[in-house]
Amino acid sequence: ALALFSTLRVPTAYAASQVGTATANVILREGESSSTKALSTIKKGNSVEVLSTSGSWAKVKTGSLTGYVYLKYLTVTAAPSTSSSTLKRGDQGQEVKELQQALISLGYLSADATGTFGSATEEAVKKFQKNAGLTADGLAGSKTLAKIQEKANADKGQSSGDSATGSLKRGDESSAVTELQDLLKSAGYFNSESTGYFGSLTETAVKNFQRANKLTADGIAGAKTLSALRAITKPADNSNGSNGSSGTTTAAPSGSLKEGDESDAVLQLQKKLIEKGYLSTEATGFFGSATRKAVMQFQKEMNLTADGIAGSKTLEKLFASTSNNNNNNSGSTGSVDTSKSLKKGDENDDVKQLQKKLIEKGYLSTEATGFFGTATEAALKKFQKDNGLTQDGVAGAKTLELLNGSASKTDDNSTGSSGTTSAPAGVLKKGDESDEVKKLQKKLIEKGYLSTEATGFFGTATEEALKKFQKDKGLTQDGIAGTATLNELYRDENAAKPDDSANKDEGNDSETATPPDEPVQDSKTNGNVVLVDWWSDVIVNNLKRGETAEVKDVLTGITFTIARYGGSNHLDAEPLTPEDSRKYFECFGYIQTWNARPIHITIKGVTYAAAMNGMPHGGERIADNDFNGQFCIHFLNSRTHGGNQVNQDMQKQIMVAFEAGA
Fold first, then answer.
1. How are the residues of the chain apportioned to helix, strand and coil, as percentages rounded to the nearest 5?
2. Are 200 and 583 in contact (CB under 8 A)?
3. For residue 325, what pLDDT is reported?
4. CA-to-CA distance for 62 and 42, rounded, in angstroms?
5. Rounded CA separation 270/282 (Å)
6. Lowest-confidence range among 42-56, 241-255, 569-583, 617-631?
7. How far apart are CA 280 and CA 448, in angstroms?
8. Signed CA dihedral, 623, 629, 634, 640: sign only
9. CB pairs under 8 A, 24+ apart, for 64-67?
10. How far apart are CA 197 and CA 187, in angstroms?
11. Residue 18 and residue 50 in contact, taking contact as beta carbons nearer than 8 Å
């Protein structure tokens, strides 16, 4: 359910008046809230006068009506003013950023919009001025700004973000977004159709990928995020024997680079620092304090003068080839030589093999470059911590033996069928790695106990998930998947469809209710909160399909509005508006999960204890709420639709909500 809108922004600080064009059918409301009275609907393409903006709302006037609309559904244009100030090299702020965004959209600026007017921005302004017949002085005065806006308005029908090397963000629509979605899908972070539109699902997928790969989780697919995605989803093409070098190798920039510089050479420098694990921010092309610190760290480790200036010696060392034999990238990962000790600063094929092992086990997200830098050290420490070793970041004999040994354990347990759901044979424990572990993880994910991916490696997360399952089932909580645990985990396989589970609720609007044999429990109250049995029909009778209710997340206090989609064994709901969808995702930290959270839901003035999951799925009725599908809300004794089972996680969170009172 996606609402398309343009995100092309041009400088507005010099505007005398503003006009907004609706990029979707948008409701004009009486106040700055989706719960206020609807005055009228502004049709897509119609223009309104923008009186003011506040947060995510715009106060507008259309005809005789004055009200509020979501700002994100307006493309705002401004008339030029001769009283505006001039933007020049050295300036910083939002006005500069908006100027840069306009220059990027027109193809004059290739670096990111940083908000700092540096040399690259100045050159872009000069180039535009020259093409527009203006004085090419690099100063963005009123005439230049007016011309830029005029050109941007003329070109605003073109899709934003259509360069695969630029930043892609929510609201963009282009072939580059389609490529991004395909990459996310290949990496296992996006399971919807690649539409080319960057909506809330794509933003959530990008954030999840960024978190997993220790990038800034801002939901914006910049150069670093795209580079990391391509490195993960595309096989290395280094075995073709072309001059014996990697296809991604670039020559070192010439000259000296220092803080304050802005150029493609800086962008190239930053990409190399990111690749070697020294820089964690995006490659923007602007040499700021973060880049200077990264250069200094590299210089210290290479025994160079640590002045933070990337001179010829620093650049030569940084861009030196990391391996003379790149055909090691293909095929399966072999064992690392345990007779050698590897540490930070080393650079050889043994380091590359070590990195491959760490990548294979999910500890390292960068490429296997053969250089032992900060990222490799951090990954190794995490592996050592998870396996009870000394966390020194040095790959000694014990660390390497464990890295080599656990890769081949229980491989003969695989049945060769990826679709089977029968219980694994034997005992599975921490440190094991096999298809049987992957099968176990999928089952734990299905039942809502494990939120990470099924990797096939039995680590700390899998052990903790198993202990939680064992606790809920009254089993010995040892984190080992023995016969009793596996039988209980797979107990419902013969009686239910492969997709049925205790926690995975695939809503079905056509299903009839399947009430339990047990009697309906009496309602209880705690303060203003009511604990009501789902099978009493109180909820069903008071919240019809399409009617709305207010949800409050107990743990965060976030509130949003939902509309009932349907549901018979429990309530299926949809966020009412895009803002409600944003708040829903915020409750779960922008992570999609079947795990439950305690909520209070207010229906016709009465507040009930309930629980919701964080997994959009199934059908939908609301077409413009930035939400694909529906989500589940459970009440006391409600059941799943797929397997007609009581979801214990939901029931536990319902009691948390009830005990919290109001």
1. 30, 20, 50
2. no
3. 36
4. 9
5. 8
6. 241-255
7. 32
8. positive
9. 65/28, 65/39, 65/40, 67/28, 67/29, 67/30, 67/39, 67/40
10. 18
11. yes
Phi and psi angles of residue 472, each rounded to the nearest 5 degrees, phi first: -65, -30
β-pairing verdict for 47-54 and 15-22: antiparallel
The Cα 409–Cα 407 span in angstroms is 6
| Tokens representing residue 384 in the block | 């050592």
What is the chain's mean pLDDT, rounded? 77
User: What pLDDT, in 10s, does the model give residues 608-657?
Assistant: 999 999 988 888 889 888 888 899 999 999 998 767 788 999 999 999 99
Residue position matching structure tokens 């800034």: 216
d(CA 153, CA 155): 5
Q: Quote the crossing angle between the two packed helices 264-275 and 289-301, to the nearest 10°.
A: 50
**Contact assessment for residue 430 and residue 460, using Cβ atoms and an 8 Å cutoff:** yes
Tell me how far CA of residue 2 lies from CA of 58, 175, 201, in angstroms. 21, 17, 9
Question: What whole-number distance in Å separates Cα of residue 250 and Cα of residue 86?
Answer: 38
- Of 2-16, 94-108, 450-464, the one with minimum mean pLDDT is 2-16
Buried b (16+ CB within 10 A) or exposed e, 98-109: bbbbbbbbbebb
Task: With cut-offs at 50, 70 and 90, classify the pLDDT of residue 153.
Answer: low
Question: For residue range 445-487, what is the model confidence (pLDDT) as tens digits?
Answer: 888 888 777 887 888 888 888 898 888 888 888 888 877 788 7
0.70 surpassed by pTM: no
Residue 197 CB contacts under 8 Å (≥ 6 apart), including other chains: 2, 4, 172, 173, 177
